[in-house]
Amino acid sequence: MILTLRVQGARHWVKSTRCLASSAAPEKSPSSPPQLEVNGSTYATDGWTNVTPKILSYLGANKHLQTDHPLSIIRQRIVNYFYGAYRNQRGNPLFSVYDKLNPVVTVQQNFDNLLIPADHVSRQKSDCYYINQQQLLRAHTTAHQVELISGGLDNFLVVGEVYRRDEIDSTHYPVFHQADAVRLVTKDKLFERNPGLELFEETWSGSLADPKLILPSSKFMDQTKQPCHTLEAVKLMEHEMKHVLVGLTKDLFGPRIKYRWVDTYFPFTQPSWELEIYFKDNWLEVLGCGIMRHEILQRSGVHQSMGYAFGVGLERLAMVLFDIPDIRLFWSNDSGFLSQFSEKDLHNLPKYKPISHYPQCTNDLSFWLPEDIEVDAGFSPNDFYDLVRSVAGDMVEQINLVDKFKHPKTGKSSVCFRIVYRHMERTLTQAEVNEIHKQIASASVDSFNVQIR
Ligand code: DAH
After folding, report:
1. Are 382 and 375 within 8 A, CB to CB?
2. 10 lines ligand 1 (CB under 6 A)
3. Shortest CA distance to 127 belongs to which of 27, 48, 241, 212?
4. pLDDT at 222
5. Ligand 1 binding pocket includes 288 (Cβ within 6 Å)
6. Same domain assignment for residues 305 and 447
7. CB of 11 closer than 6 angstroms to any ligand 1 atom
8. How far is the CA of 10 from the centre of ligand 1 (A)?
């Protein structure tokens, strides 16, 4: 099933960077309210505000903590594995777990603290849900790394939902769940059996301004090591990390699962890898990990340790483990769905049995964009997807941009979206679909000033 390959998990970080809009204080759009109430706090809005009431309604749903929910089962499996993998001398788990952190984070937490370049695509308005220019709904659970390390933690897991603007299909949803982990070790711990070895190169000064720490970003693709670390330290840490993560993968998918490590790039780790498993005739990426950039630790007040970190998407694991075909099912409150899973036997996971198959209804929507506006130049398909979500909710299974063209005479651009309607839990009538489709068309006219064709 090729679709599985695209289930949300980790982001692809090696995309070419496009220039972001200027960072001058943006104009407030006349349609947005002056302030927003999110999770009990009030936030000022500005020209970056793009969260919708629909998206805000997901806050606090905590599917990863809901009894018998497949995402909660996956969370427990990961947490239990880490509790077992690392114990202190008294036999107590070394890792602590944070699964109720506020998803409203600052741009600094989500990007700057993790050394994500100022012009990186992942910061774009079209990719994230911004509350205002400074605050957004976290786009990954990695956003909490620095606050927890600065608070003195050295072995922890963060589990929670993350928010990303994306296309609509059976494997993409604007809210999904991740688990992130950090493990820091000192020299004494890492080299218990080799006390003569060092974490850091002798020539490294330990200063944040040292060029051995700060290199042009192209150099961070170097898979060998960061200039400040010794090769021995990196190799030993890499070995421990890969051993633990392969252990987790085998714990989840069984001891015979076929896997491979693939070199990759993340702004916050170096070297970095993805772990892929062989599933239904395809290689499926399950997690991203690496040796933490020492600059992140230095800035968090940690000077004498090094660490590894990893991040994993829970929906992706759950869809494979339970054979769940559509990501919207995780949001179902249908007892026919939830009663299939039980936390009682975490190691004997049932396969999902479809509740029933309801027919699809497909309707196209074509419109002319306003003059001088083109797809991805003034009009982002993600804006349209959010509008459709707000109007039709989970009645929409897929949206595809099926056609776009520019009129040779008028110079106007036209787009056509194909919207596939299908409810997870009942049959939709064509009349009902037509009514919703009409509402989407008129909301598009109001919001984007387009002309329906
Ligand atoms: N935050 C990354 C993503 O969403 C995943 C990730 C990769 C997390 C490597 C990590 C890590 O902590 O070390 O794409």
Report:
1. no
2. yes
3. 48
4. 75
5. yes
6. no
7. yes
8. 6
Counting residues of the chain whose pLDDT is more than 90, the rounded percentage is 75
pLDDT confidence tier of residue 4, bands split at 50, 70 and 90: very low
Contact between 90 and 80 under an 8 Å Cβ cutoff? The reply is no
* pLDDT for the residue numbered 207: 75
Q: What pLDDT, on the 0 to 100 scale, is given for residue 348?
A: 84
Helices (H) and strands (E) in the chain, counts: 11, 17
Pick from 130, 77, 411: nearest CA to 247: 77
Average pLDDT over residues 259-280: 95
Which carries the bigger pLDDT value, residue 230 or residue 339? Answer: 230
Number of domains in the chain: 2
Ligand 1 pocket member 290 (CB < 6 A): yes
What's the pTM?
0.86
Check pocket membership of 141 for ligand 1, CB cut-off 6 A.
no
Q: What tens digit of pLDDT does each residue of 25-67 get?
A: 555 655 667 899 998 999 999 999 999 999 999 999 999 999 9
Shared domain for 240 and 156, answered yes or no, is: yes
Instruction: Using CB atoms within 10 Å of the CB of residue 298, give its burial: 0 to 12 exposed, 13 to 18 middle, 19+ buried.
Output: middle
Contact by Cβ (8 Å): 72, 62 = no
| Domain interval for residue 189 | 38-204+222-331
pLDDT band at 16 (very low <50, low <70, confident <90, very high): very low
Q: Quick one: 394 and 297 in the same domain?
A: no
Ligand 1 atom having least distance to the Cα of 312: 5
Question: Residues for the chain: how many in total?
Answer: 453
CATH of the domain at 435: 3.30.70.380
Q: If you measure from the C-alpha of residue 180 to the centroid of ligand 1, how many angstroms do you get, rounded to a whole number?
A: 7
- Do 286 and 384 sit in the same domain of this protein? no
Tell me how far the alpha carbon of residue 150 lies from the centroid of ligand 1, in angstroms: 19
